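Before the break, one more example. Copy the sequence into your notebook; we will annotate it together after we see the structure.
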Amino acid sequence: MLPLGFRRVAFRVAVLAALLCVIPLWLRAARQIRREVRQGWTTPLEVLVGEERGPGFREAVDELRRAVPPDGSYLLLADPDGPGALTAISLRHAALPRKAMLLRRYGELDGEPAVPPGATVVVENDEDPPAVAAGAGLFGRFDPGSLGIEDTLLPAAVDEVVFEPTGKIRVSGWCQGFGGVSCEVAAVLLNGKSVPVTRPCRVPRPDVEAVVPSVGPCPRAGFRLTVPESVASGDRFLVEVVFRTADGRWRAYPKQAVERSR
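Here is what the structure looks like once it is written out:
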């Protein structure tokens, strides 16, 4: 066996060697923590949460800020306990001091609100960015006259309106002006009232291009969107889609009835 004195020296050397290996790791960790704390103090909140929430989040926050003044409010359509909850929480913090009004807690939905929200934000899930629409668009009848000139011959169609088991209403179809003029979904009406929807997903429609060649190439003529469950809270609706072209023409497509399956 080694003498006691030698064992003490060997133990101290081992401890010192371990410290020399660990201390640099501690120092690097401390520097990293200091950088993150400094970044947290100097970087705007929407930038931090935007990096966490992914592409499109910061743009949605900027759009919301343009639509709603700091002392205003916005209607937030999101499931507080389901998909999109993290994005909704991040958005509420990033948009402060603007007040988020949750649809399920808002007591004046059947009539005109005392102070209409300045925008409507739809959060479907935590993968896609929030969809922001200026104005509440939920408490009154839609006036298409503000869109421009009515054109009943505007090429457009609603191919499918489905009440999904989740409670959402899925709407799909296509729209595009003659000669490739871009066309968008201007509004979706449920029983005559404009409601907030998810941001339409535009998709190619080569079938439309083949059947209606006068509309030109159709790389994004198709659209798909959903009406959130919190909005489609009834069992039966008349769904009407209003289209508008970039050159100021609009068309309301004939209403389609949709009923919740039992």
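The first strand starts at residue 73 and ends at 77. The CA atoms of residues 31 and 37 lie 10 Å apart. Try to locate both features in your own notes.
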